[in-house]
Amino acid sequence: MSLHRKITLNRRRIYGLAAGAALLAAGTASVAAASGSAPAKVPAPVEVSAPDEAPTPVPAPAPAEEASTPTEAPTPVPAPTEEPSPVPVPTEEPSPVPAPTEEPSPVPGPAEEPSAVPAPVPPRG
């Protein structure tokens, strides 16, 4: 995709979104005007005092002696050494499809001979 095409598509998308937002705002304003009501005022939130709660206790860190003991390192998993055997390829050639041996019968011709077309009659005049 060329850079010019990409810029054009982006402009269309941006202008489309801006036009949609403008239509939405105009629609909302027209609905409010049609209802005849002033925009409702939202009351300020009232602060609710939370009851004093005891903080959750945090467990104490382990003693230094336990922290210094080495942990057991996980043993690495050995990689498989044998290679997978290749899939055998069939060596037989498929048998050819036999051709039909009988010849098709010829299409029979019309049994009736066509009738002769009469000569055109000269116009009377």
From TrEMBL:
Keywords: Signal. Residues 73-125 have a biased composition (Pro residues). The keyword Signal applies. Residues 1-34 form the signal peptide. InterPro entries: TAT_signal (IPR006311). Residues 29-53, 63-72 have a biased composition (Low complexity). It comes from the Bacteria. PROSITE patterns: TAT. Residues 29-125 are annotated as: Disordered. This is Fibronectin attachment protein. The lineage of its organism: Bacteria, Bacillati, Actinomycetota, Actinomycetes, Kitasatosporales.
